[in-house]
């Protein structure tokens, strides 16, 4: 196991180094002068020169790459050209909100996806199976931005059942101020017992979390179904069936546990994907996460911020992959030898 | 298994309790989390206070320093800071703000402003002539943003506590300049004590004298900025007024429209024509207001085919001005000359019309057009701007019928601008499309920035070099200060020269703002001299 762990960690470090090189290259290859983005559209030549000097844009490329990698390692992710704040600080403020949204979405996705997958596997080729496959295909293929707008217009705008946008009712900042520890609002509200903000956040989470959950729920349902069908054909499951266990019992007690490995791996990967997929949902629901930050950064060609978001997402993917590998290594000893 | 679960539950609870017990957590939305701590004398905000909510599309504040601020934050700054004078769009005159009266010498080189009495900064310090002098001098020294508005000022003297005297290097309309939307703010330069004032501002603190002061600033949050009433405001708080202002960042226009409709937001500065029509149909309070911002198509007079004035005139005539305005569905209005209506220098009755026969004749004369040599032109415009894209689509379709291929490239501003300023003239475009707007309510900005020649191109992207024109532009400020009629005539002549004679520019349309206000909000007047600003103090909340 230690050798396996070291190998996987080594690979992860290489991937991160590759991503750092790539983001740097993209930052410098993008046409346009970052100094213009920083100093504003009506900047004078002197202001542009000062901005170039401040960000070392006149140094040779190799020096810039070395400085960039060194600063990243020190936790200095550069200064956003648009917000004029350190990128790492901006991301530290925005990321918890994204985590909150995607975390809630993943709970919904697992709570809906796994039972639906079991249902479809139990009634394989029957009407429930067909319905689940159709619904999950729709959930996977509907454009998330469109879905967000439709859900918002219908359930918030027209019916008025849910809030249109926001993380919680902003007036609560005055009447029931929240003490912040983790910066994840719902967690902070829970640990400090701030029930007004807790319930308001929960209420505001419903629509965006459902929209973000659509894709993972669809994928998880399909994957659970496929894994269960495969497992229930295995000897151990057939033996359980021969011993007199019911179909549902065989699926949930005997087939689901061995099938959990691939499903868990999938959940970890879909989680990283959902963070990026949630960007557009954040824009529609005014969710103060990384998505809004990324959108602003792209609009203003804020290269350090774009690179910061890219790096954060890459790190998430690497972490998710690493978690999957380690999890599978723990669950299945055969994997460690590969 | 059960034991493991119990252990997990105990572990989680212990971790949460530890986090909670560790302390160090900050209170969100209060002064101790945001550096915008409540300055003394500020009226305490509370849920009972009426709050006006503004829904901007982009983040609110990028620069807190009133000297260098030159961006979106104007919507907040104009409610926090005040200038000596203010431009009134209805009377089209400069009116008192921090200065109650002013006089100019005959040659407009000496200006004397009388300051309002009993004005205090949010820091508690009284606003007197010395303080105003210090603020303007600091802005001048910083030399950033729109600080150039004070370029004409040679010296400032605080004659007494209420009298501020300016001596100018050359005649200039200082009353108008002092009403500029940026760089004209008067602020307390001693706010940071012996500390660095720029750093002090950057923490989200303010040192203005306006009706509102910073309550909280939370970068990246939905309500990025909230302001609260300043108790010591010279205008007082009699009558029904909004006591709090919140800026709730709403990037999606559809979301903004729904928030206004539900009354959660008081003002959305911009909707698209479809949403605007929908809001109107649903009975929302809408306002379509002309702006001081127009779209310019600048023709390359130094390099490429458009060096030929006949071809420039042909492109001017090929633009479908009416079709464009119709397709914009209220988001744009026909332009009359280079200077938008409402500004000194505007000339009415000069709207251009499409003239395809005229364009064809000019192209033929130059050897092009149907049956002639094919002509290829390059045009660059702002990426993601649907209205500019509309111009590109309509113009390339029209030109293709005249045997002219228009290669229209949407680019990010910095790329578009870099390419236009390139030292290699072959890399420059034939047509450069951009918006222009003035920094104070005067047409001078178009002429000096966009058309006056300079050694290296900056915004003069027609690359025009015309000594006579430059000479006339250099006299404009002086003329506007001493002889209004002569200045008006000069503005008209210069527009004729640029548009009709030299044909270096076409003005496809003037931008219209399509605003939506929540029901019950009254007293709103759109003032294009302060783009997108709502002067919240002037509003009356609904029942």
TrEMBL record, chain A:
The keyword Transport applies. The chain crosses the membrane at residues 12-30, 101-122, 134-155, 202-221, 263-285, 305-327. It holds the Pfam family BPD_transp_1_N. The keyword Membrane applies. Keywords: Cell membrane, Membrane, Transmembrane, Transmembrane helix, Transport. It is a multi-pass membrane protein. PROSITE patterns: ABC_TM1. GO terms for cellular component: plasma membrane. One of its GO terms (molecular function) is dipeptide transmembrane transporter activity. Its main location: membrane. It is found in: Cell membrane. Residues 95-328 form the ABC transmembrane type-1 domain. Belongs to the binding-protein-dependent transport system permease family. This is Peptide ABC transporter permease.
Automatic annotation (TrEMBL), chain B:
It is found in: Cell envelope. It holds the Pfam family SBP_bac_5. Coiled coil: none annotated. Residues 1-20 form the signal peptide. GO terms for molecular function: peptide transmembrane transporter activity. Residues 93-455 form the Solute-binding protein family domain. GO terms for cellular component: ATP-binding cassette (ABC) transporter complex; cell envelope; periplasmic space. GO terms for biological process: peptide transport. SUPFAM superfamilies: Periplasmic binding protein-like II. Keywords: Signal, Transport. Its main location: other. InterPro entries: Peptide/Ni-bd (IPR030678), SBP_5 (IPR039424), SBP_5_dom (IPR000914). Belongs to the bacterial solute-binding protein 5 family. This is Peptide ABC transporter substrate-binding protein. It comes from Sinosporangium siamense.
């Amino acid at each position: 196991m230690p050798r396996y762990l070291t190998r996987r960690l080594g690979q992860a470090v290489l991937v991160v180094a590759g991503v750092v090189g790539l983001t740097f290259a993209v930052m410098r290859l993008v046409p346009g002068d970052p100094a213009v983005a920083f100093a504003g559209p009506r900047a004078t030549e002197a202001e542009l020169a000062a901005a170039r000097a401040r960000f070392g844009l006149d140094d040779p490329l190799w020096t810039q790459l070395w400085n960039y990698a060194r600063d990243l390692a020190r936790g200095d992710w550069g200064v956003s050209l648009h917000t004029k704040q350190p990128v790492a600080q901006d991301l530290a403020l925005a990321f918890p909100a994204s985590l909150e949204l995607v975390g809630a979405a993943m709970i919904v996705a697992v709570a809906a996806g796994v039972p639906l997958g079991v249902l479809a596997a139990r009634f394989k080729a029957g009407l429930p199976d067909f319905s689940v496959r159709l619904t999950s295909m729709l959930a996977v293929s509907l454009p998330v931005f469109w879905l967000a707008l439709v859900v918002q217009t219908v359930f918030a705008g027209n019916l008025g059942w849910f809030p249109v946008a926001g993380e919680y009712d902003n007036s609560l900042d005055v009447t029931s101020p929240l003490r912040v520890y983790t910066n994840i609002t719902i967690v902070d509200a829970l640990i400090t017992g701030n029930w007004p903000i807790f319930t308001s956040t929960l209420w505001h989470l419903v629509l965006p979390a459902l929209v973000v959950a659509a894709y993972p729920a669809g994928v998880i349902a399909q994957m659970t179904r496929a894994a269960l069908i495969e497992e229930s054909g295995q000897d151990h499951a057939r033996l359980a069936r021969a011993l007199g266990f019911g179909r549902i019992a065989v699926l949930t007690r005997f087939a689901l546990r061995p099938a959990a490995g691939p499903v868990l791996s999938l959940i970890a990967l879909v989680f990283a994907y959902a963070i990026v997929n949630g960007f557009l949902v954040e824009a529609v629901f005014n969710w103060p996460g990384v998505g809004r930050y990324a959108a602003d950064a792209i609009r203003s060609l804020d290269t350090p911020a774009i690179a910061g978001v890219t790096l954060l997402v890459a790190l998430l993917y690497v972490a998710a992959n690493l978690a999957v590998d380690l999890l599978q290594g723990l669950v299945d000893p055969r994997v460690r030898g590969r | 298994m059960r034991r493991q679960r119990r252990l997990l539950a105990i572990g989680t609870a212990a971790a949460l309790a530890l986090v909670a017990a560790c302390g160090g957590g900050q209170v969100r939305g209060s002064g101790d989390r945001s550096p915008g701590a409540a300055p003394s004398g500020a009226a305490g905000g509370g849920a009972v206070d009426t709050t006006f909510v503004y829904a901007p599309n982009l983040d609110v504040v990028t620069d807190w320093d009133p000297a260098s601020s030159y961006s979106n934050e104007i919507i907040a700054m104009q409610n926090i800071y005040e200038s000596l004078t203010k431009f009134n769009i209805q009377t089209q005159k400069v009116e008192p703000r921090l200065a109650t009266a002013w006089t100019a010498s005959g040659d407009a080189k000496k200006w004397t402003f009388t300051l309002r009495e009993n004005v205090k900064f949010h820091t508690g310090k009284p606003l007197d002539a010395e303080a105003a002098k210090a603020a303007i001098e600091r802005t001048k020294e910083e030399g950033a943003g729109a600080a150039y508005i004070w370029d004409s000022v040679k010296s400032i003297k605080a004659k007494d506590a209420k009298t501020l005297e300016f001596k100018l290097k050359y005649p200039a309309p200082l009353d108008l300049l002092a009403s500029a939307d940026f760089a004209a703010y008067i602020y307390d330069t001693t706010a940071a004590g012996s500390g660095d004032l720029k750093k002090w501002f950057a923490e989200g603190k303010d040192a203005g004298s306006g009706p509102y002061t910073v309550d909280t600033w939370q970068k990246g949050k939905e309500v990025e900025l909230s302001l609260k009433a300043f108790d010591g405001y010279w205008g007082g708080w009699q009558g029904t007024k909004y006591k709090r202002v919140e800026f709730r960042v709403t990037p999606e226009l559809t979301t903004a429209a729904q928030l206004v409709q539900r009354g959660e937001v008081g003002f959305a500065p911009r909707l698209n024509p479809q949403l605007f029509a929908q809001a109107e149909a649903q009975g929302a309070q809408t306002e379509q207001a002309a702006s001081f911002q127009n779209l310019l198509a600048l023709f390359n007079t130094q390099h490429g085919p458009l060096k030929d004035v006949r071809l420039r005139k042909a492109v001017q005539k090929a633009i479908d001005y009416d079709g464009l305005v119709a397709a914009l569905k209220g988001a744009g209005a026909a332009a009359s000359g280079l200077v938008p209506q409402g500004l000194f220098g505007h000339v009415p009755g000069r709207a251009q019309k499409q003239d395809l026969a005229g364009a064809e004749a000019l192209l033929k004369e130059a050897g092009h057009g149907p049956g002639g040599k094919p002509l290829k032109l390059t045009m660059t415009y702002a990426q993601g701007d649907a209205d500019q894209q509309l111009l590109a689509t309509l113009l390339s379709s029209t030109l293709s019928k005249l045997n002219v291929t228009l290669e229209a490239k949407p680019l990010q501003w910095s790329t578009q601008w870099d390419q236009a300023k390139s030292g290699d003239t072959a890399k420059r475009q034939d047509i450069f499309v951009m918006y222009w707007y003035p920094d104070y309510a005067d047409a001078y900005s178009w002429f000096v920035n966009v058309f006056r020649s300079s050694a290296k191109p900056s915004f003069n992207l027609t690359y025009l070099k015309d000594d006579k024109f430059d000479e006339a532009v250099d006299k404009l400020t002086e003329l506007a200060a001493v002889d209004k009629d002569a200045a008006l005539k000069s503005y008209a002549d210069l527009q004729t020269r640029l548009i009709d004679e030299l044909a270096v520019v076409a003005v496809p349309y003037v931008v219209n703002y399509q605003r939506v206000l929540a029901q019950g909000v009254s007293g709103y007047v759109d003032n294009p001299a302060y783009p997108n600003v709502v002067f919240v103090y002037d509003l009356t909340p609904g029942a």
